[in-house]
Amino acid sequence: MTEEELLKGCLEERQDCQRELYKRFAGKMMVVCIRYAKDKLEAEDMLQDGFIKVFDNVGKFKQEGSLEGWVRRIMVNTALNKIRANKMKFEDISETGSHLADGDANAIDKLSEEAILEIISHLPNGYKYVFNMFAIEGFSHKEIAEKLGIEEASSRSQYAKARKYLQNQIIQLEQIKL
Amino acid sequence: MTNNNFEKRIQDKLNQYEIEPSENLFNDILEKRASRPKSILKFTYAKLGVALLAVAAITLFVLVDTRSNSTSNDNTSISVAEKDASNSNNIAEAGGLASNAKTANETVVAKERLKTVKQKSTTNVEKQASSKKDISNSDVKWTNNAPSPTQKSAIANASNNIQKSTKQTKTYPGYQDNGVNISERYFNIDSKDRPIISGQQHKGKSHLYVYHSMDEALINAQDLSYLVMKPLRVIKPSATQDQIAAFEKKQLDTKHKKQQPFYLDLYYSAYQTSHSAIGNNEMANNYKTLAKSNPNHAFNLRVSTPINSRINLFTGFGLNQINTKFDGQIPNTTNKVHYETSTYYINDPITGLPKLVQQIDTILNGPVSYNFANRYTLMQIPIGLSYNIGFDKMDIGIHGSALMNITSKANGMNPDFNLEKMQSFSSNQKQVGFGASLSLMVAYKLTNKIKIIAEPGLQFYQLGGKKIGNAMNENILNKGLNIGLRYTLF
After folding, report:
1. Chain B closest CA to A132's CA: distance in Å?
2. Interchain contact A89–B (C-beta under 8 A)
3. Cβ–Cβ of A116/B11 closer than 8 Å?
4. Domain containing A35: what range?
5. Are strands B450-464 and B170-177 parallel, antiparallel or unpaired?
6. How many domains does chain A have?
7. Are A24 and A71 contacting, i.e. CB atoms less than 8 angstroms apart?
8. pLDDT-based confidence at A111, cuts 50/70/90?
9. What mean pLDDT, rounded, does chain B reach?
10. Predicted pLDDT of residue B219
11. Are residues B378 and B340 in contact, defined by beta-carbon separation less than 8 angstroms?
């Protein structure tokens, strides 16, 4: 089934097309939701709400970008709405005395996707959201500040701390493996 | 690791990764879509308030418009017509008797009656004509006679002459009664017989005693028994005998009972909140450094009534949602020092002598950024007094009140400035606090019963406390503007 046929079928509320659309993107979108959620249950809630929005608004997809990108944007926005509704909480990471060393460029490649996801999900919420939005979704700090209702400077500083923390964690994990 | 490498590698890894959700999730999605209502209108707090305000304003406008139309136009024309008909009928009846009289006696009786009726009618016209000369602002004569068409034209002519000479009245182009303009008049409600006073003589009391009345000539000459003396009422020329009797009794009553108006104000408040933590310790000072002023809004209902010609007593309630914003940096004045100890064993093949080495690690912390907001839902009940002045269509009132604030919900953040951490708080516990408000109301009359209000003002009160989970008590100062409608009830 081509993308065009899929969209047309979804517009006509055909269940086979909706199921196909779901099958194509559910796995990847689940990863998006897990990155923002506190557990799998919350991620599935986000995924459910996100797909409801996708099916409701499929007619608004203008085919200017990729369908996957459009669905991903909806998922991210749904996740952010949920976060806002749950009263976002920013915690600080207590830094250790030593400076974090820059890691090996291959350190990330050596880790499994699951391990990276695990490290990200263990970040304090504020850092996690900012890191996800900036590093993975590609939002600017200005956009992050607007979406999360924080200052642009806060977004930058939180991202810098999160990045440092993640690098450190990745290196430590790699060393343990060795 | 370079910046781009790090982000890109994580991006690549995660964007291709897939985790299968639960099997039934798709069916749940379909079920949820099927079970929900087709269209759900989502109103935010602000939108709901604005919508309610708009509906209330439109309803009041329509109600008042309908009522004033039905009372001022329909009643006037119907009852004047009835009176005319009744007057003409008397003459016609008498004339009819005369022409239909079969016997000489009957003819004489009928002619006598016709003569009497005509004489009475002429006397009335003469009386009215002479009364026009005696029109004064402090003396209104109350009679119970209705004018005939002839009388009306004489009255209208006289009235026109008076209007030309005195120019005391301000006419409303929309109000017409049998060709004669209904004018705005003021009655001195404090005096025993409530004399008519000119617009200039009400001495800033038009907020209480604006009346719609007929022209002075008509008041003196025409049947005035229907003049029901209620403030802000349009004259109803349809009084019953009972009403007339009650009115006359009222005139004789030396202790005149006033009818107190009630003002119902419905208004929206937009204001800027400045807040400051209470106390002079390190924590309070940090709160003060971070406190930023921010906009807030509320919906209010106020009821007021005059306790004398100048002072109104008022109360009501307001629904507020207050956000107190904190944003900024707290500089760390003291450096944190970490002590770590390590034990080394030197030159000791078995246990040796322990040597203690103390390692001091000093961390120089820079300023820490904070950005958070606390939100409170509270109901405000003011009790206060206002000083009022009225200038024709404009009322001015200075309102001062004590405020009782009932906080019903609170949530936000409690920063720990030592550990540089934030902890959220949320509470549904009710808490009562007190404050004060001061405002200057300017009301402009749109119709007899509706005025538009603009009211800049200040509010001061305290918020927060340990009962509702907040670490600090705060002083709140709201500077804002109320905009709404005043509806006058009697």
Report:
1. 9
2. yes
3. no
4. 3-85
5. unpaired
6. 2
7. no
8. confident
9. 65
10. 45
11. no
Q: In whole angstroms, give the CA distance from residue B286 to residue A20.
A: 56
How many Cβ pairs closer than 8 A exist between chain A and B?
Answer: 115
Q: Which residues of A touch B420 (CB under 8 A)?
A: 92, 94
Contact B388, B311 (CB under 8 A): yes
Question: How long a stretch of residues is chain B?
Answer: 490
Domain end marker among A53, A85, A117: A85
- Per-residue pLDDT of B125-137, as tens digits, reads 444 434 333 333 3
What is the tens place of the pLDDT at every residue in A36-85? 888 888 889 999 999 999 998 888 887 778 888 899 989 998 988 888 76
Interchain CB distance below 8 Å, A48 and B371: no
Ranked by mean pLDDT, the top range of A116-125, B227-236, B327-336 is: A116-125
ipTM higher than threshold 0.85: no
At A138, is the secondary structure helix, strand, or coil?
coil
Who contacts A109 (Cβ-Cβ below 8 Å, separation ≥6)? B9, B13
As a whole number, mean pLDDT of residues B80-104 equals 38
Tell how strand B353-363 and strand B368-391 pair up. unpaired
Record the tokens describing residue B188, joined without a space: 């001195």
Read off the pLDDT of each residue in B466-474 and give the average, rounded to a whole number. Answer: 78
Residues of B whose CB is below 8 A from A128:
none
CA distance B9 to chain A (A): 7
Q: What are phi and psi of B103, to 5 degrees?
A: -105, 165
Contact between B6 and A163 using a beta-carbon 8 Å cutoff: yes
**Residues of chain A contacting residue B5, judged by C-beta atoms under 8 Å apart:** 105
Alpha-carbon distance A88 to A80, whole Å? 9
- Check whether A103 has a pLDDT greater than 80: no
Domain with residue A153: its CATH number is 1.10.10.10
In a domain, A102, yes or no: no
Mutate which of A30, A38, A73 to disrupt the B interface (most B C-beta within 10 Å)?
Answer: A30
Tens digits of per-residue pLDDT, B429-449?
888 889 999 999 999 988 777
Considering the domain architecture, whether residues A57 and A130 belong to the same structural domain is answered as: no
